[in-house]
């Protein structure tokens, strides 16, 4: 069984994979024939594949997100590796494989991530702030167990959103120790709430974003989270005009830093400035780490990364 | 009694005015002496003024927003007209003057503006939308009677905010007739709600913005209005996830059109596109009208207008 | 006979259409074969189509803008509907169809649009202004009967340019009533002249832009219209340095508002500010209306609209 | 007699100067006294000066642009050299000084500049182009004898506009020799016409820009020159749609290169690209040369230059 | 003895301060008199002050950076606190005060900062990298003991540059632990070298930037540090084309992230991305901390901070 | 034998060409077949070509940069001319053709270009400057004999880099004569050094850029050239802090003018301003000239040129 990121040109192979994408297309020939344009995935990455001469039965058998056993050959096409599938069948119970083995996941178990988030939540000393954060986390706890943080940008994997939160909490804890004038409650609450409405902005399955919801497009997760805080305060009987409520909303609203990046107000509290940079540093370094992980080790350069001024990242020689 | 916009160089005059600004300053001489740096206002405009040799009594007598009787002389200083005050006393009851005679106001009575707004509100056919708009208007009805729409940008006068709403409603009604595919309820609701949270973003007195509130700076009127809609829906038992609530919030959130102008999302509904242009057209034309009104008719050009790419406006000769 | 915007996947159909585009291409097979890559159009919209195995005779028979009778099947290809043509012949007299039935048109007859434009022109009270506008309209009256207002951006249909003018004139009339300080002659003249030189900037046929002329690319319709005003004044013996001539040129030159949008000067007259927003509002709302009209009613979202920050427009549920 | 750029701190001096600016101001003292805020100029530069205790007679005697004999002392005020005038009288015939000795001028005589421009004009081989250029030059020949090229930006001195033209013609001649594919007629015509309408965009006296005309603000010299070419063609019976006329207008319209720099179209001919860079190089290098000339030689750095990204220019040590 | 940040309106006080700035100016009176325009400083902040009627002796006695004993009164002038000095004398030995008590300093002793930097330097495992970093640190060790990191932007205090380095090293160490794929040697070296050439870009005294050097303006500290690495490699016989040298130069060159922020190349290594964000986070949070520290605790808002989108920072109420 | 820029639709032809690019691809048919996707080149231009049914032998015979004899037919595909190759063989000695006949070259012999560069170098009067320039030229003399100046932007042909230098030197000589205050040594040195590190930023063969080097991507030619000057000074024992060294580095670092164009500092010397415009003018005019040369003379417009605001260039009719 061969991992996708180990395949090289002309490798013949057999293995289990997930059909991350599957589209029926037609050749340009006369008459045109149906074929499958596929993206094969496993935990190590993904690869474009073709399955020529898809029969009527095939078209009723295979669908996106199916687990399949594939026999094929890897070859280079337009400078990129691609797979030509010669045989394919759906996985059966006897194969003893589980879908979670085939998707990219956070390196920490979702339950552990949720545990950390809840523990942090409990450690918020201000009772009203804790109540508001708890209201929001409880609302979407199920989704926090598996949602990615974004479509492609960063943390685009199973439980990527809560992994992003937890890593930010680590960084936040360090910064609060280094600069004790920061209000630690506000930093913790801001980190947990800043992207929490992505759970309703997007729909996701197995760590893959399916689409943006109508609400997500029309309001965006930043304004949605601000509305959630309003809702939490009302439902839990907290004064809407209290400084806490306003400051929590400010943290969420300003965390993209600039208007052209989606924030209607700019950071105007020490903790809001900190939140923006904690978020940016974690997201950007994760993009770099993901790109290096999913680029074959024989390559000096990763592909261009849109979130990094569309630059590729250079991988130093090991001996350095 | 001379209106401010009629004064010219070397005019000696007596009249009643409001002290729009008053600051105690000191001359550079030795020893330095106290004087008042003043902005005199009346319904026709405002003018910078000096009151030299302010005595200790004077300093305890005169304060901003006082009505005063002034004797002085107008003279040109650094190419701008200025007043040197020779005598000044506070207005007494016998003078028979009222503060509302001294401030710039909307050309329609506040009560009439409120009447139009409420009538429009009642004409919204969708019951839940009407309920939400009514909740928000009721919340700040007092302030709508007198707040300006902005500090200096546009409609910076008594009842300027509700005047802006009413003029936009007129334009909105026209557009809905011209393009019947537009949802008129949504246009009406969007116009009434788009700037309504300015009443808590700012504090204003007599049509003059005093300052931005903490909440106003940290959240901004756009996000505040979105939160108010959330609050209205909860308090009035309307489904927070209904399309109406989301669309109303989208109208408000997107009405500045671009991220760099303060909108966290861009217009993505026909009515939101219309709202943005109705708002822009009314605001920009009012800036032009205000500038022409407060510039002496003998001047060909108004001062530079920040909201119009910092351009001055040319006044055509009458015979044209 | 099936309208294009009613076709759905796997529909077999026969009908009359216009060949909006037709290009001879070759398959990648060995040996490659010729086929037609076609855009079929009718009054309801347009659709991509293929006609495989085009013979030598076919290549001498079919050309762009031909009316044809087509038998084919609609199918989904790469998530977009496409037509595979099985039979195609040119329309004959007996078919009794006329080309004007197959193109998108303004919802008002061109003659009526021209009537409105001329009536408005006659209502301009200043004689010299009226003379200049009349000179320009007369120059290109034929083209005003059918030119679109743009290639794809907005009003891209038969008589779209004069329809845009007429709708703007309606809006202009409203604004002049709402703000009587505006010079109505200048507003009328500005609306009629602002895009009039598009008739020489572009060449168009049946409401479809064919290409930009050399003059159009090197000068642009804004500067061309300014030159036309100069020409009109000279030919009609009007003083080139009179305020009227200069103001009319200013209206035209500034109507794109900013240098990066093509205006060499920014609006510096009340009427020029109004013209810019009247133009913008009409163009943007027409984009929205066109997009909603040509998107199947079953779709929640229109395609992305380049002129609206590349956003798609959401169509509310009917019950709202 | 001391040149302005030779004065240093605490120099007492007597000399003849021009009053480039004179404004009556009042001291802050009680009672305030009148004084003159003056800019003294001579051919070497200019300096701020004060004349305290201006009498009523003084106020009726001295006006801007007067030549005066001054006795004063130079002193440093807020890090800048300034003059305190102790005595001042108007120049009389006996003094034998002429105003042209006191203003910055092009280093070549205006008559010689005009001679070069006319000779170049005559050397344009295409008769119609030559006719158009001649029409425009003849129209404003008087002003070309003395107008500056800009208010402060570059060539802001007597006959600066024609000097700029002549220097560009030299550079244009070199480029045409280096790249023979360029049309020399078009380069010559473009250089002479590109800024020629500045003569009506501005009013200037003695090489100093007084103000922008209404026409200049509303149309700008770029569009004005385009209109002049239209006028020239009509008056001289040249076909308005001929390629020559269009290309000449394109040269003028595109010479600022980008929309945000005022050009409604971008260069789309080889000669238009050349014209833009010939203009830019001459203007920028003149800014540098002017800044170095008018900065005392003891200074390492010139003041900041707005037209050069607001950078100061470093003057290398001589021995280099 | 009163600390500057404790003074309030109308306080009469006596104390020791440093003359951070002192300029001789003249009053506008007749005749004008000399006075000192002063900036008084101590370890808690700084304040504008006037010393009226400066005698000839005074002008030969007091100079910037002198320690003085001052008797004065604080008063509010144009909404800002200012001091009027009634008596002033230079500090004598008997006063027993030392200049280092009067300037803002890093909260860690310079010697300790240097110790940390050197220890970190020693811990770089790659010998050649260590050699290069050591060469650069040794070159400017003296200045690292006291230079600020910037003129006003951030860390503008005694030993601010090395304090910035040390805080970044702490953050770098955390990030390397959190993301072990990062090359720790490169992070350490990048942090120490990124701003090291500021020691030759600027001249500074007592933690205050005096001016930019010619070299600093013409090359900038980013390119200078790149040149230093070249120099270090040559002097220490390290291969100029080795990956280490190139990577170190890349770290330094790219650390401002974007071209418009001064970096000729954008980060293209994981460590370079990390360095940029470590630098940004430390600089921005220090700006916030400095602004809050030097703003009286009674103020809700700090002044506007240029480096934070020109926003003011809000200080939460304590009870939160 | 037919030159590429003379081919038109349906021409059958035989000739010698170079395989500028050759990639093995597969048809979409079943089973897919191998074919060559080729770019054929000669001294007149280049053209896309297909060689269908590439055999196993073919795949071991033909490689990029081979000279071949081709028999084929030109045909229009998607509005662009393309070649279908029917026969192809490698060139043999008997064919008597040389690779240099098949590539675009500077119109001057490389040896002559180098001669001019060296002569100019010798004419630099300052000994140390001359030494530094000589060190850099000597370092890469081989590459200067054949490198292009860029990948596609401008001077993308054999010896394009040294041709660019020589043309700039001509222009520089003219400017120094026109403005004698410029330091001619610095202009000469700046021109020779400004792009010299492109020889290590890129790898090129036969005038075609193969790729950017790791060093080229991580440092860029601007910073690399600055480092070379440092190296030259050290190796030749010239004071690194001398004004000459700093000024030479400034010339190189600032020649792209703005940060967003890659310069870490902006021009701050007269000669640096001149260098930027000399470079820009030569590069832009060469782009225009190249585009006109390689566009068939029957075409009015060149393709869009990325370096010229993505505009096409219009070719005037000859008779003009």
UniProtKB/TrEMBL annotation, chains A, B, C, D, E, F:
<keyword id="KW-0378">Hydrolase</keyword>
<dbReference type="InterPro" id="IPR012340">
    <property type="entry name" value="NA-bd_OB-fold"/>
</dbReference>
<dbReference type="InterPro" id="IPR003607">
    <property type="entry name" value="HD/PDEase_dom"/>
</dbReference>
<dbReference type="InterPro" id="IPR006674">
    <property type="entry name" value="HD_domain"/>
</dbReference>
<dbReference type="Pfam" id="PF01966">
    <property type="entry name" value="HD"/>
</dbReference>
<feature type="domain" description="HD/PDEase">
    <location>
        <begin position="157"/>
        <end position="293"/>
    </location>
</feature>
<dbReference type="GO" id="GO:0016787">
    <property type="term" value="F:hydrolase activity"/>
</dbReference>
<dbReference type="InterPro" id="IPR050798">
    <property type="entry name" value="YhaM_exoribonuc/phosphodiest"/>
</dbReference>
<protein>
    <submittedName>
        <fullName>Phosphohydrolase</fullName>
    </submittedName>
</protein>
<dbReference type="GO" id="GO:0031125">
    <property type="term" value="P:rRNA 3'-end processing"/>
</dbReference>
């Amino acid at each position: 069984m061969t991992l996708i990121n180990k395949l090289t040109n002309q490798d013949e192979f057999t293995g289990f994979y997930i059909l991350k994408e599957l589209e029926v297309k037609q050749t340009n020939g006369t008459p045109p024939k149906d074929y499958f344009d596929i993206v094969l995935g496993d935990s190590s990455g993904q690869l474009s594949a073709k399955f020529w001469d898809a029969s009527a039965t095939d078209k009723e058998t295979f669908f996106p997100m199916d687990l399949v056993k594939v026999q094929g050959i890897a070859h280079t096409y337009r400078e990129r590796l691609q797979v030509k599938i010669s045989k394919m069948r759906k996985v059966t119970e006897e194969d003893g494989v589980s879908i979670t083995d085939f998707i990219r996941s956070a390196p920490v178990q979702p339950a552990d991530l949720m545990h950390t988030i809840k523990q942090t939540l409990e450690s918020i000393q201000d009772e009203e702030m804790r109540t508001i954060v708890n209201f929001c986390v409880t609302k979407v706890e199920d989704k926090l167990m598996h949602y990615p943080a974004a479509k492609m940008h960063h943390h685009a994997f199973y439980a990527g959103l809560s992994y992003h939160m937890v890593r930010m909490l680590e960084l936040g804890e360090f910064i609060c120790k280094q600069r004790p004038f920061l209000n630690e409650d506000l930093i913790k609450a801001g980190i947990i709430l800043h992207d929490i409405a992505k759970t309703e902005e997007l729909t996701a399955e197995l760590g893959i974003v399916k689409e943006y919801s109508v609400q997500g497009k029309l309001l965006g997760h930043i304004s949605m989270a601000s509305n959630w805080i309003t809702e939490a305060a009302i439902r839990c009987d907290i004064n809407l005009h209290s400084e806490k409520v306003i400051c929590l909303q400010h943290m969420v609203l300003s965390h993209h830093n600039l208007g052209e990046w989606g924030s209607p107000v700019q950071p105007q509290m020490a903790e809001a400035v900190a939140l923006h940079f904690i978020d940016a540093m974690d997201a950007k370094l994760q993009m770099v780490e993901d790109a290096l992980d999913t680029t074959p080790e024989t390559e000096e350069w990763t592909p261009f990364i849109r979130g990094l001024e569309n630059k590729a990242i250079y991988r130093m020689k090991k001996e350095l």
